Here is the input.
Amino acid sequence: MNIRFVTRTVHAYIDYPVALSLAALPFVLGLGSSSPLALWLSVATGVAAFVLTLLTDHETGVIRVLPYWFHVAVDRLVGVIFVIAPFALGFTGLDAAYYWINGAAVLAVTFLLNASEQQIARPTAA
Here is the structure.
């Protein structure tokens, strides 16, 4: 079994729930005890991720002006920023754990589990 199962289509369908959870979970979890920025960084990222998804040229994009590769590159950048943010911004406890876990998840999906365009089987003309 190939571990690179996150195809462009799978990625497109998980983008909206991920964006919404980035905007909502900080309130549900009560983030911000070490810094108010711990709350608002995720909310702003969630809103930006929602807009990025709307603008990406993939199955769930609405205004398809951004190439999929650019979307994945932005996701990877967010993953790196989330891993670094607790150190750079002084997040501790749950605030730090939230960013480290989300950053690790994004990096795992985009680097380890992401199927390249070449790996995705294309139907051939008969």
